[in-house]
Amino acid sequence: ILFYILLVLWLNKLYNKYAHVLPGKRTAFLLFIIDLALLRWLDFYFAYPAVLKQSFLFEPGFDLIPGLNSIGDLYLTTILLIAVFIKFNKLVQREQINAGKKYRYLQHFVSLSVLWLLAYGVFYLDQSIISGLSTNPVIGIQFSDPINLLAVFINVLLNVVLFFMVRSMNYYSGKYSVSFLSKILFTVFLTIVFVTGFPSYHLIAYITSGFVVLILVVVQLFSENTQIRFIRYLIYLIIFAAANAVVINIAENKTKDFNQALTADYLAHKDDPELESIFHQAAQQVSSDSVVSLIIDNYWDNPEDALNEYLKHRYFDRIAFTYDIQVTVCMSGELLEIQPEGILVGCHEYFEDLIRDFGDSTSVNDLYLQNSTPESIYYIGVIKPPALKHTDEEPLVYIEFYFTYVPEGVGYPELLVDNSTLTYDLSGYSFAKYINNNLVYKFGDFAYHTEYSSQSDFPANEFYNDLNYRHLKLVSADGDVLIISRPIAKIQEKLATFSILFLLMGAVAFLIFILVFRSDVFAVFMLSFRTRLQVFFIITISVIIFVIALITAYYAEYNNKERVITQLNEKTYSVLIELQHKLGGITSPEQIKTEELYPLLRKFSLVFFSDINMYDPSGKLIATSRPEVFRTGLLSELINPLAFEEIYVDNKLFYTTEEQIGALSYYSSYVPFMGETEPLGIVNLPYFARQTEVKKAYYMMIFTFLNLFVIAGIIGIFIALLLSRFLTKPLVVLQQSLSEIRIDQKNERIAWESNDEIGLLIREYNQMVDKLEESAELLKHSERESAWREVARQIAHEIKNPLTPMKLNVQHLEKAYNENDPAQKEKIHSISQSLIQQIDTLDKVAEMFSDFAKSNIKRMEKVELLQIIKSSVLLFKNNENIQFTIKADEAEYHTKAIEKDVLRLFNNLIKNAVQSLEGAEDGKIDITLHRSGQFIEITIADNGKGIDKDIKSRVFQPYFTTKSGGTGLGLAIVKNIMNETGGDITFESGPTGTAFYLKFKNTEA
Fold first, then answer.
1. Comparing 747 with 641, which gets the higher pLDDT?
2. What is the average pLDDT value for the chain, to the nearest integer?
3. Can you list the alpha helix ranges (DSSP code H) found in 609-690?
4. Calpha distance 122→155 (Å, rounded)
5. 83 Cβ partners below 8 Å, 6+ apart?
6. What is the pLDDT of residues 835-884, one digit of tens each?
7. Cβ-contact 217, 181 below 8 angstroms
8. Distance of alpha carbon 469 from alpha carbon 751, whole angstroms
9. Has residue 14 got a pLDDT over 80?
10. Residues 247-296: pLDDT tens digits?
11. 430 to 111, 422, 445, 467, 540: CA distances (angstroms)
């Protein structure tokens, strides 16, 4: 984007420089447009640079023509349009493009037609862009998504194009005026023609017509008089923001309707074709899979757990995170205990009864779709495994697949939504299922009627509004009814769109005014002092409202926090009392049975509207009402150590803290479950309930204050225009002097003789300048000391780096001597050579820092990389459980470098790889060398623990380290050495290891 801006500026400068060569300004402007169009076409056709064009910015996401269907394409095209209309506006201002007074009507009507079509195009693009964004049924456009923020900013830039066209037409109106009525009538004519020709786009056409009429009214009422120019632009800004807010709100509502219809269709389907296809393929393979029979033979008493894990990873990995998969192996005569009732029933009989009474056949043999609840999908599959070796029995494997659109219970549901799988995010929606005129299931906040007859008058398969909700009703062929609903956006939400656009457009307008109309900036500040007082009033009102908003938001958040903690405390004590009542006879932790505790916690979770976890005295999870959260790895099965310390070490009866899962923060309370003399465990209640509603309430508060801020600001501006007064020039001088203060240069004092209030301010300013100069001197002194400390640290690191492998080699030599190793002589020779080389390195390090004060010039020489790598590897060969492998296509690889620096580089990298393999039983370090054109590429890969993604961006920073005894200079030195040799270093890291990629210049290329 920056390249585009610079290229357009260069092209514009080129046309201005050689304008005299071209036949005329109009021809030059036309060629300028052609060049920009050609530039855009070449960029689109060749897709250069490929890395940028393959990024998320250029992923198609909008229902527009190629070249305009991604965020990046829209940005590039909008930049070119802005350049065209800025140039057009300047040519109009200089009267280099006009038809003269004789053809003023033609000129007005042509410009008015261009304005109408351009406004329509901008509003149409707004609608298309908003329709392609992700929205939440409660919150609307989710500004936490960067794509959504970029899309909204595109809307602002498109309006910049429209503004320059308005400005040009405003100039025509002042220079060659025509009757106001004729312009209004022509606008109405354009609207009628367009609506007649394109009736499906009538809504945007009406908005466009209203926008143009309002612009014409402002142009008619306010001339180019400088005293009221600011008012005219302010009204322009209000009209632009309001028109775009209407379009965006309409588009957002249509997008919500579309997503609601998709969700309704999703809920209406009870089968899953993907699962059926996967099961069909898996059933054929499992029947002949010897591993299945081997698991059943080896885990005869309880094969289900092992078989479940095997089948999930081997055959059902694509749906394992979507469905709860339960495997049951039924032998003849085997009984199942049905929890929580404890009823015993035959294993085969149990599943056969389920299939017979509730199951429907599918297109796949031995797979049955159960008639489950409206919010879930439930399959039972039957597979006959291969013959067993230790018995003649022929067991059957029953596989249950269970998926729920709405996670049961409360607390974590919104965390469990997986956008990459089948699951839809139902937060914000309500829906109900009616069968035989009766309500059989209801989800969400909307209060549905118990009988369908109250909703029967509303149309099916159409949207309708009722009780501040927008509903969609679907009626199936068998008469079942599904109604899905979402809350209607409130007025403050719709008004917030206007407020956000007003602020963004105001900021962009100010920047463009500064950059494009630099000459007008000084004219504004040279106006009467009244203008300055206007700014003072605006800032004062804005600051007051902003401070009030901050204080109110703080107290609202504080009160909400106190309310949540109080509710959580009361709820925790209630749960504790119930648990003590139910488990009153337990006197030791060993008596607590997980299988009995789970249904009890599940029941209390539904009663108290909160998830419940219970930990044993060691801090390990015993039971939970929401096992899937721990199973999916969202939470650890170990207790928060701070809570454990507060209760078991500090003997507190209650502990509340704020915890976090990903980006979600929540409150969590802990209480001891007491026995007769000591705690038998810890009860934990995390407070997750109704996160979307909490977020909506927060956004509603933000929207309210944002609207108040903007509306009060607009009113304040008009008040400032009416109550403007004199501002003294010395204050402006003081302000300019303050803005020009620099710590890196000498600041001038202000000469002022008067002892009035302004004189006191200037005296304080002069004292501040004096103190700033003193502070600058102190800062320079401190920086010099810091530089020498850094040199000292680096010397220490460079000396320490070879000492560790030297010590290991000496110890290895001592061991060989004590054990009379037959290869003692060879080892002495090998280790001696390595030690001598490292001692030489230490000597050269000292020499390097000695020469540092004399000269910074380093003389590079031709070095052989493979031999240096072998020498470095030899130092670490004695590490047990680590296998080194060097792969090279050729015998020698030469490059220009300093040999001791290159050796130091490989020592650091291999040492880091060795340290990442501490504790590993089968550590591997693979080093690969090969030529690639003008470079020698070297890869050093290990299968260690890897580098956390949170710190990847900082690994090459000086003094950054994750080791308690590290200096953090190793990789920083490696990076510097590669830069000095003209090479490059990158890395990739994951859970299975880390690989560093080095590129040296090939001196033999």
1. 641
2. 80
3. 627-631, 641-644
4. 8
5. 8, 12, 36
6. 887 787 777 666 656 544 443 445 788 899 999 999 888 888 878 788 99
7. no
8. 68
9. yes
10. 999 988 888 888 888 888 878 877 888 899 999 999 989 988 989 888 88
11. 50, 19, 6, 13, 45
Query: CA 458 → CA 262, 437, 467, 483, 486, distances in Å?
Result: 20, 15, 13, 11, 16
Per-residue buried b or exposed e for 514-530, using 16+ beta carbons within 10 Å of the residue's own CB: eeebeeeeeeeeeeeee
Q: In the predicted model, is pLDDT for residue 521 greater than 60?
A: no
Mutual orientation of helices 491-516 and 691-722 as an angle, nearest 10°?
A: 50
780 band by pLDDT with thresholds 50, 70 and 90: low
Helical spans, DSSP H, in 861-921: 865-876, 899-916
| Residue 999 pLDDT exceeds 90 | yes
Asked if the model's pLDDT at residue 374 lies above 70, the reply is no
DSSP state of 646: I
Question: Do β-strands 469-475 and 463-466 pair in parallel, antiparallel, or remain unpaired?
Answer: antiparallel
Asked whether the predicted pLDDT for residue 50 surpasses 90, the reply is no
The CA radius of gyration of the chain, in Å to the nearest whole number, is 37
Tokens of 341: 């009732």
pTM of the model: 0.59
Name the residue among 332, 340, 385, 380 with its Cα closest to residue 356.
380
DSSP E strand boundaries for 543-698? 613-615, 621-624, 655-661, 664-674, 679-687
CA distance 292 to 310: 8
- Annotate 48-79 with b (16+ C-beta within 10 A) or e (fewer): eeeeebeeebbeebbebeeebbbbbbbbbbbb
Range picked from 64-68, 413-417, 650-654 for highest mean pLDDT: 650-654
Are the beta carbons of 710 and 507 closer than 8 angstroms?
A: no
CA distances from 282 to 277, 278, 289, 368, 387 (A): 9, 6, 10, 15, 17
3-state DSSP assignment of residue 230: helix
Cis, bond preceding 49 (omega within 30 deg of 0): yes
From CA 429, how far away is CA 431, in angstroms rounded? Answer: 7
Q: Is the pLDDT of residue 629 over 90?
A: no
**Cα(977)–Cα(973) distance, rounded to whole angstroms?**
6
Residue-level pLDDT at 854: 42
Whole-angstrom distance, CA of residue 481 vs CA of residue 476: 6
Kindly report the backbone phi and psi dihedral angles of residue 569, in degrees, each rounded to the nearest multiple of 5, phi listed first: -60, -45
Q: Classify 669 as helix, strand or coil.
A: strand
Question: So what's the pLDDT on residue 226?
Answer: 47
What are the structural domains of the chain? Answer: 1-97 (no CATH), 100-262+493-527 (no CATH), 273-405 (3.30.450), 429-489 (no CATH), 554-696 (3.30.450.20), 858-1005 (3.30.565.10)
pLDDT in tens, 462-520: 899 988 899 999 988 778 899 999 988 888 888 988 988 898 888 888 887 777 666 55
- At position 763, the amino acid (one-letter code) is R
The whole-angstrom separation of Cα 308 and Cα 566 is 43
- pLDDT given at position 849: 60
Contact 123, 243 (CB under 8 A): yes
SS3 636: coil
Find out whether 1004 and 894 touch, Cβ atoms under 8 Å. Answer: yes
**pLDDT given for residue 419 in this prediction:** 43
User: Sheet harboring 935-942: ordered strands across?
Assistant: 882-888, 923-932, 935-942, 993-1001, 984-990
Give pLDDT, residue 279. 94
Helix (H) or strand (E) holding 310: helix 304-314
Instruction: Please tell me the distance from the alpha carbon of residue 381 to that of residue 363, in angstroms, as a whole number.
Output: 12
State residue 288 phi and psi, 5-degree precision.
-120, 15
**Cβ atoms of residues 914 and 804 within 8 Å:** no
